[in-house]
Amino acid sequence: MNTLNPFTSITAAKVAEAAAQHQTPFYLYDEALLLQKCRRVLHMPNPYGLTVRFAMKANSTRAILRLIHSQGVKIDASSLNEARRAHLAGIPCEDIMLTTQEVPHGEDRALLESMLCAGMRYNVCSLRQMERIAPFAAAQKLSLSVRVHPGVGAGESVTRNTGDDYSCFGVHLTNLKQLLAVAEKYGLQIGTVHAHIGSGGDPEAWRENIDLQLGILETFFPHAHSVSFGGGLKEARMPDENAADVEMLGKYASVQLEAFALRTGRQLHMEVEPGTYLVANCGYVVTTVLDKKRTGEQGLSFVIADGGMEVNARPLLYGSRHPFYMVSRGGELLSSEFSLPETDYKAVLVGRCCESGDAQSLDEAGRSLPRTMAQPEIGDYTVIGGAGAYCSAMTPFNYNSHEQIAELLVTQQGALRLIRKRQSLEQIIQNELD
Ligand SMILES: *Cc1c(COP(=O)(O)O)cnc(C)c1O
Question: Which residues, other chains included, contact 174 with Cβ-Cβ below 8 Å and sequence gap of 6+?
Fold first, then answer.
């Protein structure tokens, strides 16, 4: 059984089987690993109860949402449309929380109100949102959540730090008094205090956020009964990376929550909101090698595949590293980042967009960065790992008029299931007018 890596159930033979049945490129998801990840977070130690919400912006595909929800994980939506999409996928409003930069008005306001009446939770992210929602929340006796901007954050890159003063998420500490004045005016109680400090940062920062947030809750929110520590649990996409130790973070949170209870007599329910951690390593992009080139003796070797930045923009957007797997047409694993081949072949894996940044490995300056891999034949498959989060949900997929690609799931039993059809060229142009 040559699985692609030590943590997946997907074999190279399964990749070749999928590629024989479906036109590449496509996303391929590992159901068994996804369920295992859900269980791991659902079992995070906690003293007074735990709610896990999936940050659905990481992957918004219906079948994925339904699978995760079926395990007992709720949803955090980043926009009203995400909340609607989750609801259309069959997830009840009471299992959805809305954490958004939007201040819904007009038709959206009516939609928001109907979803709130049906039980959706609202995480207030600005003073303006608070002022707009307070009369309605008071009339409907809603318990609100508030996203606090703690003034410090952490992320894998500057662009993924959402807690420092260079980013604008949540109600800044310096505005909390004003927010509480609005709450008081309308007789509203804040039930949940929330902070999300960034994606994939240092676990130490995650622990510090727990301390900071409990301090904020104690000072400002006498009625809060739950605390959300947000997402940002790091996943290890590459073999040299370390994933967040969920068990250890849960233990740390438990100690702090128990100390808080001793001090204040308040037993807080805990919430976490992973996106990346649940889905990142469950997804792959399967592409076919179209061409190979070399830029002279002193230059670089390139492997050109039929999918790149338009199916995984993370290397270009963040300089993120993803593992590569070479699979022969016959379904043999030729090389993987987890067992590098004995070869001095180094190449840059690039896509087919007319864009020099369309490479799957870039250095900090944005230059193509060669990596060791087996030299593929034309028609072999190149598989990009760590592509379950912020890929299908976050790519410039119609760039160069490429279609949004299909998504497939390998079930726990090893069956292949199409969960999203490939877009057609007609769908790309259907709304254009002369
Ligand atoms: C993006 C986001 C998350 C998830 O972040 P990950 O790094 O993918 O875990 C959680 N909560 C909120 C509010 C977010 O915006």
Answer: none
Q: Which amino acid is at 10?
A: I
The reply to whether ligand 1 has any atom less than 6 angstroms from the CB of 112 is no
Asked if residue 287 has its Cβ within 6 Å of ligand 1, the reply is no
Please state the length of the chain: 434
End-to-end Cα distance, the chain:
55
Q: 332-356 burial string, b = 16+ CB within 10 Å, else e?
A: ebbbbbbeeeeeeeebbbbbbbebe
Burial level of 412, CB count in 10 A (0-12/13-18/19+)?
middle
Q: How far is the CA of 250 from the CAs of 55, 247, 319, 400, in angstroms? A: 18, 5, 30, 45
Q: Give me the residues paired with residue 55 across strands.
A: 76
Distance CA(352)–CA(306), nearest Å, equals 6
Within 13 Å, how many C-alpha atoms sit on residue 156's CB side?
21
* pLDDT beneath 70: ranges in the chain: 1
Cα 352 from chain centroid? 25
Residue with tokens 């001793």: 262
| Residue 2 and residue 12 in contact, taking contact as beta carbons nearer than 8 Å | yes
What was the pLDDT predicted at 44?
A: 98
If one counts every other C-beta atom within 10 angstroms of the C-beta of residue 158, the result is 12
pTM (whole model) above 0.85:
yes
Whether 58 is in the pocket of ligand 1, judged by its Cβ within 6 Å, is yes
Closest CA to 50 of 41, 38, 59: 41
The CB of 323 under 6 Å from ligand 1? The reply is no
- Token pair recorded at residue 80: 């009203």
- What phi and psi values does residue 46 have, to the nearest 5 degrees? -160, 145
pLDDT tens figures, 260-276: 999 999 999 999 999 99
How many A from CA of 275 to the centre of ligand 1?
A: 6
